[in-house]
Specification:
The chain is of the alpha/beta class. Helices cover 37% and strands 20% of the residues. It is globular and about 45 Å long.
């Protein structure tokens, strides 16, 4: 079984310091959290930027500052979000890709997202995929519903993304795909055979799905974007604390954790 890639989703677009005081928001806080997660065992950091007021932003300049500060500290794979927040325009969402990061997310469909709708029309998906291809950015295919896998396969047929693909199954978002073991198996069985995959369980689903992924040979995403608790009723102290737990579990099961360089080879970056 190949080594385990751990992604730390540090901030997200919905969580606030009011509900999780340890949330990293400023470029310095995000860079420090990224370094802590790298030291704990994460190979990838998934980044959402915030502005000076702590609100979600897709600003090129803010992402640039974050990227440079992280690179000064470690060689972790930096993966900016092109999802942003549900109210961002497609033009705003695409800005971080212009920094030519090694990876970026590519959401492959529209779905309900709590009380909102996360809109990704076919033309927008293709536009994002094409720009990533032009800049040499590896897309992580974000999947909130089963049909998004088929959309990704169509992008391959159109020559807009190239195998091997890497998928991230985001399970348990209110309004989108649930987060049972059967749901994860259903997703895994639907992707091309040469693909790699990560699972991001939302809220209380984070830990059980992470354990399943470790056993199944997949990869794991944890962090405050997905879950702010360490256990029921106890807020996590940091993103790194959530990474450390996955490293411990993987070691107990007998699965080694990938370094960033090993992750790059696994993901064909």
């Amino acid at each position: 079984m190949e080594k385990l890639i751990i992604t730390a989703a540090l901030t997200g677009a919905e969580i606030t310091k009011e509900i999780q005081p340890n949330l990293p928001v400023t470029p310095d806080e995000i860079a420090n959290a990224a370094h802590e997660c790298y030291c704990a065992g994460a190979s990838i950091v998934h980044i959402h930027a915030r502005d000076e007021e702590g609100k979600p932003t897709q600003s090129y300049e803010v992402y640039k500052e974050i990227k440079e500060k992280i690179e000064e500290k470690c060689n972790v794979i930096i993966q900016p979000s092109t999802g942003g927040a549900v109210w961002h325009t497609s033009e705003e969402r695409l800005q971080p890709v212009e920094l030519k990061p090694e990876m970026a997310t590519l959401s492959c469909g529209t779905c309900n997202f709590g009380n909102d709708i996360f809109v990704n029309k076919e033309g927008v998906i293709e536009k994002f995929a094409k720009r990533m291809q032009e800049l040499g950015v590896k897309p992580e295919i974000e999947v909130f519903e089963r049909g998004m896998i088929e959309n990704a396969k169509r992008l391959v047929k159109k020559g807009l993304i190239e195998p091997p693909l890497h998928f991230d199954f985001v399970l348990g978002v209110p309004g989108a795909c649930p987060a049972s073991v059967d749901d994860l198996l259903f997703m895994v069985n639907a992707i091309p055979a040469d693909s790699t995959w990560t699972v991001a369980g939302i809220g209380r689903h984070e830990l059980p799905l992470a354990v399943m992924a470790i056993i199944m040979g997949g990869h794991v995403r944890v962090g405050f974007e997905d879950n702010i608790f360490y256990k029921r009723g106890e807020l996590a102290k940091s993103n790194a604390q959530l990474v450390e737990r996955i490293v411990r579990i993987a070691k107990e099961i007998g699965r080694k954790v990938a370094t960033p360089e090993e992750a790059r080879k696994i993901l064909s970056i």
